[in-house]
Batch of 2 targets.
Target 1
Amino acid sequence: MQTKRIKEFPENFLWGASSASFQCEGAAHEDGKGLSVMDMRKQDPSICDFEVASDHYHRYKEDIALMKECGLKAYRFSIAWTRIFPEGNGEVNPRGVEFYNNLINEIVQAGITPIVTIYHFDYPQGLVDQYGGWTDRRSIDDYVNYAEFLFRTYGDRVKYWLTINEQDHVVHMPYRLGMSDENRREKERLGFLANHHMCVAAAKAIQKCHELVPDGKIGPATCFDMLYPTTNSPADALAWLDAMEIRNYYILDLNCKGEYNGTFRKYLEDRDMFPEVLDGDMECMKANRPDFLAFNYYASKSISACPLDDEHEIGDIEFQLLPSREAGVYQVVKNQNLNATLWGWEIDDIGLQSASRLLWERYRLPLLITENGFGNVEKWPEEGILEDDDRIDYLTRHLHAVKEAMNLGAEFIGFCCWSFMDLISGHSGFSKRYGLVYVNRTEHDLLDLERRKKKSYYWYKNVILNNGKDI
Ligand code: BGP
């Protein structure tokens, strides 16, 4: 709604930027690092592998200096589990431990608050080989041991922790669980079993963090696409409600309330996919509520009803990376009201206001945006700097949406744009850039990997300096 006055960003607002280890570090086989499921991923040959990425592993000092100059208050990054425990469990790798000690020291000395993701997609291949990874209950203890090691080692300097990045995208993408992409319908069942283990593991890690890190705060980093009913037909509204429960809230309800919501439970039961729940699992989740709720927001999606027909039975799912159509449940359709990125992600800043308000009202936890950004194909010009006005426009609108949500009562800890520097996209290689800082390489030619400030870098610096007054 339109309001008379709009609140300003609070003085302690964490203006930040984000990255993930496998997407920016490179050094994929250096200093004792073990293999992760991301290293094992068979990429389309037209897309680069994760071998060098943005070479942050070797250039982190230069990168942190750029962050300092930009005025960042927070840097959200992930620790590569396989640098610490190359096999996922067992022997610690001292060189990996040292790398993150150095990185964290550099960040703290620059006056920047570190926000650490414990696990961001790069699950140890060693655990997949030992017992099948997240689909086996042993995965819970191995995650908790790893998290405990991080709290004990870095908890003196790191006070903000994120348990698992975008768990929904692990659940629904078999390769992120270390499995092939074949027979995805069966993999959904395993995905929901893995989901249960991840929720128990996250709850146990929250407990450990509270025990071991003085003043530590910890929460999940979820993905949240705002969803809309495509029309005002009651059937579309119902499909939308179902999609919200089984795609957007199902993990957060487990994380924050320790419960399987009714719609999700029935969805799983009807498909014989309800996971084994042991005594104490739900109690553990209930007893260990997160301190805040972090979420990644890029786009919204439009949802229509998808009735059962003669060709489809309950459980027939179609996927475009993620589930996109399931007869008897919902289907994603194009939203005619929105523009989209080159990859079809529908740009919707109002959706961020709605998402923030829904999350705040449902869970009453302070919010932290851990990812928001604009992916584009970009080439550094012959003269001058790269003028990424589309990115500036995207971020300005989305920050304004945060302000509007705050105005209506939602509490925010901060906002981290994705990403500080160009890095490898989840599925589109180096050609899809998100950074405020350009990294001079192409998909297959490493060039000199020089860091160059885009126009958005200067824009963000000014936003931070003015504490978002002009947003
Ligand atoms: C999120 C992931 C990030 C990042 C981002 C952009 O899902 O947490 O790791 O990749 O999306 O996505 P993409 O790189 O596919 O454009």
Note: The CA atoms of residues 163 and 202 lie 6 Å apart.
Target 2
Amino acid sequence: MEQYVMRGGNPLVGEVTISGAKNAALGLLAAAIMADSAVHIDNLPDVSDIRNLLSAIEGIGGTVTKADPHTVTVDGTTIRSLIVDNSYVRKMRASYYLLGALLGRFRHAEVALPGGCNIGARPIDQHIKGFRALGAQVDIEGGMVICRAKKLTGAHIYLDMVSVGATINIMMAASMAEGRTILENVAKEPHVVDVANLLNRMGADIRGAGTDVIRIRGVQKLHGCEYSVIPDQIEAGTFMFGAAITRGDIIVRNVIPRHLESITSKLREMGCEVTEFDDQVRVVGKPYLEHTDVKTLPYPGFPTDMQPQITATLSIARGTSVIRESIFENRFKYVDELARMGAQIKVESGSVAVVRGVEKLTGASVKAPDLRAGAALVLAGLAAEGTTTVEEIHYIDRGYEIFVEKLAGLGADIKRVSTDREAAKFNLRVVS
Ligand code: EPZ
């Protein structure tokens, strides 16, 4: 069984280059199939979620040509099936983006209903509400979401909650509807803006992405183009907290500092030094971190996808911190694993964690319950005294490209191993 094994204590020092944003790339690849010619996308992260979405696109007949692991050409003109079955959706929830893309382009899409997931119930009622408002008939039969429309007509749609997925999905469908759509109370995440930018480059007419209201004038056709994925805000944030928790000093390259503002603010409140440059940030950790309170919020608030990483870091800060998770109902599952490393965290009512800072963490054997929690456990292991093993690392592979290599490049003593024997060998190694 593959796992990470690490010996904590080395400060992360040096430079790390951030990959393209996974959650942007998932939307971009789905949008690409709407064009009537090939779309060329580069700066893709080479992570399993992206590979799975590309397989799903090939599964319905789309042509995917990889120039290298980060550069792909997607040609949706060869699509011959509008049915995305459960085998893809099980592997990767974001294949629901194919609903909006196929519905917009072909007026018909059938995609398996994404199930619950490790971070709580994740309904798609807002996506469905949007498709229906555009004139689609949406039924759920045999575990499939079936969307059909004779024609799609622009509409005025108000989302009951700020949802990244619903905003992107409805925006894609509406970009090929007849007439004007006004989409209110939308998500403002950088990846929403990135997908809107690609669609506009493909010939769509979308305004306001990045604000609360998106206005779309539908077009009949979208065409191919070239596009580059934005840098990954969450991967960057994870390394920034890596510098804080290990008291290191790192330069995080290929980032958009504006996308990192909530993360930067929290690090500064905790006493770290953060310097912003054009496309990089430097984070210098301090011997003692200060406590702070955090509430996860839609962008530009503090991202839920950084909640486990800041909680792990605060577990060794001075004083007591309160973390409020306002996006997902069950995103503190990893706290039990952190407790095995000596963290003192009490989860109250499922959405609030009270973190009493301890002097140090100690190495333990832990399991990643999901992607970001897995990354947080690795950060904790890098700061802990002794050896930590992190299992279930397939979650981490979904969203972090060559995570171990990047960390090792910063001086971390970490290895990916495939057997317990290899892990034991790492443990027995004499460290000079
Ligand atoms: C996206 O998920 C991300 N995934 C998530 O990243 C991220 O945690 C989340 O946005 C919040 O930022 C991708 O971009 C592929 P939402 P998404 O719709 O779109 C509720 C990671 O680790 N809701 O913004 O599925 C929902 O239950 C992943 O990279 C409804 O009730 O999230 C949640 O409470 C994990 N009905 C809230 O809204 C709906 O129809 C926000 O969810 C839609 C959402």
Note: The mean pLDDT is 95.
